[in-house]
Amino acid sequence: MADVQGAREEAEVEVVVAHRERATLRVGEVFLKIDADQARTDVEVEAMAMAPVPTPRVLWRKPPVLALAALPGTALGRLGEPSTASAAAWAAAGAAARMLHDAPSPPWAGRSLDQVASRLDGECEWLLANGVLPTDLVTRNRRVAEAALRWWTPVFTHGDLQVAHVFIDGDEVTGVIDWSEAGPGDALFDLAILTLGHQERLSDVVAGYGADVDLDVIRGWWSLRSLEAIRWLIEHGFDPFAPGCEVDVLRSRL
């Protein structure tokens, strides 16, 4: 009976994340990523092969499913929750970002400045037209976001370097997951996404990154990212109004 019970426990399926675009399931030490857009999966597989930092091992791929081995360790943190990781672990995440940014950039195109600005304008219009946020909150953060809308030298960026996508064991980075948005982009965008909702950790990340960064640009990306993400989050069943999440990030700019 104990063996049967153990087998049942091993066979349990955990839904990690699921929405209309994609889903990720965990079965034991295997993650199954299901994505109808195979172009995103193509990017993820190629980016992981190119990245100079630890990434999940590809076990097999049978569209629309990509099977990945679990990484050791735990996530550096979660948006909306205090991070218990050490300052050294956050610095290690900054160092990993620097290693990525110093590597040869992927051959495919990234988002252009014009595309970023156009998307931002469209999302701000939607937020105001639908009364999702107060006008002064949108207007103030749109001004803060201007700092990010400047020319940048494209580097190899993760594109969605959320704190939950960086895994650590103690003070060491054991890997980075979810590479489907990787491509040439602004290095400071990655640093901003990593510290979104964890502003108090920015100095640790910058120390590990080991280069001068424009903090106003990072603050601009915090506002820009939060403004442009809210509609998508709402439409896909997430709550940007949860404590510590995107709307609170915007409010902190007032």
Would you give an account of this structure?
InterPro entries: AGP_Transferase, Aminoglycoside_PTrfase, Kinase-like_dom_sf. With 254 residues, this protein is of the alpha+beta class. It has a single domain, classed as Aminoglycoside phosphotransferase (APH), C-terminal lobe (Aminoglycoside 3'-phosphotransferase, Chain: A, domain 2, Alpha-Beta Complex), CATH 3.90.1200.10. It is built from nine helices and ten strands. The strands form three sheets. The protein has a five-stranded antiparallel sheet. It has a three-stranded antiparallel sheet with strand order 6-8-9, covered by helices on one side. Strands 7-10 form a two-stranded antiparallel sheet. Strand 8 and strand 9 form a beta hairpin. The radius of gyration is 19 Å and the shape is globular.
Which fold does the CATH topology refer to? Answer: Aminoglycoside 3'-phosphotransferase, Chain: A, domain 2
Give the second-level CATH assignment, the architecture: Alpha-Beta Complex
User: How many strand units?
Assistant: 10
Spatial strand arrangement across the major sheet: 1-2-3-5-4
CATH class placement: Alpha Beta
What structural class do you assign from the helix and strand content? Answer: alpha+beta
Unreliable parts? 1-8
Major sheet attributes = 5 strands, antiparallel
The separation of the N and C termini measures 60 Å
What is the overall number of helices? Answer: 9
Structural features:
254 residues, alpha+beta, disordered N terminus, 3-stranded antiparallel β-sheet, globular
